[in-house]
């Protein structure tokens, strides 16, 4: 499977089809905003969303771990839609989560939704993680230390693409000189257009967006 390589703060980063990132030097797979349990959360509030979102999301993560065989899996926050989502996991969902943790060591970054460790998820929970010159956290920071770069989630970036008279909205990576924001991987996650000030203001010196097809990743002008 193809990927697109970029470099931030001297560190090689592979943007993968599907919206994940591989850090090849440390064999680290990075995903963002899984929002596991969003469907069951909606149903507790009387919103009847079709079931299966958590299984679908976990199956994609499992496929990534089987394809790239990483040593470490880092989830950049909001992995669970709320702090009680772990308690609502169904049997098939627990089984998939266990299969993933048996294949790769998981490390969970706390987000504003999960808010802290979810006991049903094996692995370590941290506020942020440093990998070489890369700082991995949930919410993008206002200031990044000199000589470092940041990988973050939280904002669910999307881009509008015009093709043959049609306009499509697609999840995307967005990156600049010292920052990469990953798209949300959760099945029921929405998105925020990269032209929104809360995203565009993070890239004062310009940015590049990347979208993926089945087997490759493309830069979008």
Structurally, the number of domains stands at 1
Mean pLDDT: 93
Q: What is the helix fraction of residues, given as a range?
A: 10-25%
Major sheet: arrangement of strands = 1-2-3-4-5-6-7
* CATH architecture descriptor: 4-Layer Sandwich
CATH topology label: Purple Acid Phosphatase, chain A, domain 2
Strand content: 25-35%
Which term fits the overall shape? globular
Q: Could you describe the largest sheet, including whether it forms a barrel?
A: 7 strands, mixed
Structural class: alpha/beta
pLDDT under 50 segments (min length 5)? Answer: none
Tally of DSSP β-strands:
17
- How far apart are the termini? 23 Å
- At the first level of CATH, the class is Alpha Beta
Cα-based radius of gyration, to the nearest Å: 17 Å
- Tally of alpha and pi helices: 4
Run of helices and strands: EEEEHHEHEEEEEEEEEEHEE
